[in-house]
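Reading is simple: each integer encodes one residue's backbone shape. An example follows:

___
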Amino acid sequence: MNRRLLLSAGVAIAAAVAGGYTFMGRKAPAPAAGPAGGGDPVADLMQLQLPDLAGASHSLAGWKGQPIVVNFWATWCAPCVREMPELDALQKKYPDIRFVGIGVDSAANIQKFVEKVQVSYPLWVIGAGAIDTLRKLGNPAGGLPFTIVFNADGSINRKILGEIQPDDLDKTLSGLKA
């Protein structure tokens, strides 16, 4: 059976089991309404307040005017884990581009994970309730990993479902203007 299909099925089952709840039984944060209240998924993502591993809240809106690479991942996702060192190397190569890993997992699992595998870019937690967010952003299966490259003006440059190809992503990043 196709590995991507298996991964997507696993994510869908996890989402169904989680029922929209994140770590410690809290309801997943609801995305803010878009500028006109129309539910623009990119605007919603930019405004979404997400905790880092220390519990401090952040949003992508804080990086307005800068190119951003957002990587949705999970500790249990083998392709996600494989691509993290490659994303870390690209982040170091392009210091003017903001990178963030948004964990579709619990803060406790991510904390244990980073004790073994460290990255230099920030990791935020969205929890299992993220599947809806992923779908709205153009990932109908809600599969992981899922990477979105944003231009400095906040528009989407490209979406990558599945493991990144470092040389391919490098070409995209080299063309971004800060």
